[in-house]
Write a structure and sequence with these properties.
Number of helices: 10
Structural class: mainly alpha
Number of strands: 0
Helix content: over 70%
Strand content: under 5%
């Protein structure tokens, strides 16, 4: 029953905070446009008047991509450099908005202005940024710990395997194991943010330790809630892939249609993130804050 309440509470919070959803979407769109416009300009200049670019939208054409990159190394290296920096900007804004979103969700009974929202973003930014960097490092270490030895084991199995099915099953199990651990630490990071906000703490490691204990203590319910919340974004992603395969990007009309679907998908993804954070906040508060209903 607690899980259902938490699930519905997050949905309600997301529905009543659509203004925040569209603010975050607008920032995401701006970042995407700043990256996409110079990229497509370079792509058009590189291809000239040929129809090579059209083949890229129909299917993957390695030869065309290789010739474009080889012929315009300077331009494409600049684009790849921009991708790196914009990935950093995306992380920056994701961390920046987290404090404001949590404040909106936590103080739902109070009137929060946009000024209060951005003030909360700034208040929690450095705390959440340190947390994000620590978790990125942890995830990289975990990936190395999993894939280096498993890769060696996989090579040994491959030498004795009768068919490729064995290897598919082996690496499928490895990836599944990694996903379970990856999701575990995603939950730990989210609850650590909640703890830092509620307790007003600034020590990342103390918050992570407290979050780790909380998730471990309620491991089954925490995972069930997380999986319930993941159904929507995963379902939306599958729908997006199906739409893309059905319509493709072969004409201007289909390109426009796919663009609109992509924007709807991004909005839904932002909404889902607020939904997830709202549900996790309620779930944590239920156990840690007396009187939470």
């Amino acid at each position: 029953m607690k899980l259902i309440k938490a699930y519905l509470k997050g949905l309600k919070n997301g529905a009543f905070n659509l203004k925040i959803t569209f603010i975050i979407y607008a920032i995401n769109l701006l970042i995407a446009l700043l990256l996409a416009l110079p990229f497509f300009k370079l792509l058009g200049d590189s291809a000239g008047k040929t129809m090579a670019i059209a083949t890229l939208f129909k299917n993957f054409n390695y030869s065309v991509i290789y010739e474009l990159i080889s012929g315009y190394k300077g331009g494409f290296s600049l684009i790849f450099n921009e991708v790196f920096w914009f990935a950093g900007f995306y992380l920056f804004f994701s961390v920046f908005f987290a404090g404001g979103v949590f404040t909106y969700l936590y103080k739902e009974d109070k009137i929060i202005t946009l000024g209060d929202f951005f003030q909360a973003c700034g208040l929690y930014f450095w705390r959440f940024l340190r947390l994000a960097l620590v978790m990125i490092l942890v995830q990289v270490v975990i990936a190395l710990i999993i894939y280096i030895p498993m890769g060696m084991i996989g090579e040994a199995i491959k030498a004795k395997a009768i068919s490729e099915v064995t290897m598919v099953w082996f690496y499928g199990c490895v990836v599944t194991l990694h996903l379970i651990i990856f999701w575990w630490f995603l939950m730990v990071a989210d609850y650590a943010k909640i703890i830092m906000m509620i307790d007003g703490g600034t020590n990342v490691y103390q918050s992570l330790l407290k979050s780790f204990r909380f998730v471990f203590k309620h491991i089954i319910q925490s995972y069930l809630l997380f999986l319930m919340l993941m159904v929507t974004p995963v379902g939306l992603f599958i729908l997006y892939v199906l739409f893309y395969k059905v319509f493709g990007m072969t004409t201007l009309v289909t390109m426009l249609l796919i663009f609109l679907i992509e924007q709807a998908f991004i909005i839904a993804r932002v909404f889902s993130k607020i939904w997830i954070l709202g549900s996790q906040l309620y779930y944590y508060s239920y156990y840690q804050i007396p009187g939470t209903e």
